[in-house]
Design goal:
This protein is α/β, with parallel strands linked by helices. The chain folds into 2 domains: about 230 residues, 3-Layer(aba) Sandwich (Rossmann fold), CATH 3.40.50; about 140 residues, 3-Layer(aba) Sandwich (Rossmann fold). The strands form 3 sheets. It has a 7-stranded mixed β-sheet, sandwiched between helices. The longest helix is centred in the first third of the chain and has 20 residues. It is globular and about 70 Å long. The termini are far apart.
Length: about 425
Amino acid sequence: MQSRRTFIKSMTAIAASVALMTGSLTVLAADSKEPIKVGILHSLSGTMSISETALKDMALMTIEEINKNGGVLGRQLEPVVVDPASDWPLFAEKARQLLTKDKVAVTFGCWTSVSRKSVLPVYKELNGLLFYPVQYEGEELEKNVFYTGAAPNQQAIPAVEYLMSKDGGSAKRFVLLGTDYVYPRTTNKILRAFLKSKGVADADIMEEYTPFGHSDYQTIIAKIKKFSAEGKKTAVISTINGDSNVPFYKELGNQGLKAKDVPVVAFSVGEEELRGVDTKPLVGHLAAWNYFMSLKNPTNSAFTKKWADFAKAKHLPGADKPLTNDPMEATYIGINMWKQAVEKAGTTDVDKVIAAVGGQKFKAPSGFEIEMDAKNHHLHKPVFIGEVKADGQFNVVWKTSGPIKAQPWSPYIVGNDKKKDEPEAK
């Protein structure tokens, strides 16, 4: 006669066999104590390392915090960090490595849209899950991606509306200045159509692009000065990315292009990018984001303190002056929302987690409760416009009253009214 213990063991084995045959491993997976591998896909070298290294470190801080609080489904998170080195094809190669060799449950990564476009086919083919933490041009909606940065209506459009307003200086002419790749070109296509809808003539729009890593802005700043001297109030809209921002802002200062004369509003410059620049000549120039380190609220105070403590404990570069910025906040929100979704689903299974992410809410350092749209894989986000201060921080001069819903498909691009506001199922 079987003992009670033997009988229970037998029944457990039978249940496991049934689970394997039916694919119903959710409960068993939840009971596993193996670490959950998490991919971190950011450039730690090359032209984009100035921006992306901080996101890698923020991801590690968030994972460490989650592990200290018991992990996810009772399991610890194990970060797998790779360096695609600002090389866009290498992003795809590293993404495939994370999914096939390292078997990560989720990836947090990419900054530029060209790197995201490079990895998209890999995540679709292998049914991986990517959280993308940076503002971008929209015109995309993928089942396998959650976008925790801003769409154009959550950054670019409000910034230009501000520049055109009395408070923003009543700009009538615009310089669209960007790095030469998909995000600046598509954003500027949207902005041209928006400006045209507001009655701005083509002759009052100047558009210039420079390659990644460009360092000589002397000629371009001179052209901007000449363009702005032709009678109407001029503003510069900058989608320059990466380490090119340092020589651009230095040259602005060298040529005395002050904010009161020709304000620059940047979409890819935050606290981290201004670290290596003398910001005194840049006082009054602008940036549009969904978060600034200088925001005063209890959630942000706790967030910036956690980051400062982590930076000092890990002896990170710049730990003597620890800075947070918008994509770092978006990284923090994304990882926590993924954790909540896994706990809701009871599994790391990608399809089940995707279904659980929509509608997740999280109290963000911006001071607002942020929600992942139930359909369109984008966060509802507040918008802030900040002026550069002499210390490299930002003084908020304009903000929305609360989070606004993302429009992945811009209404200023012809044909977008026919596109669905939710990703196609596989």
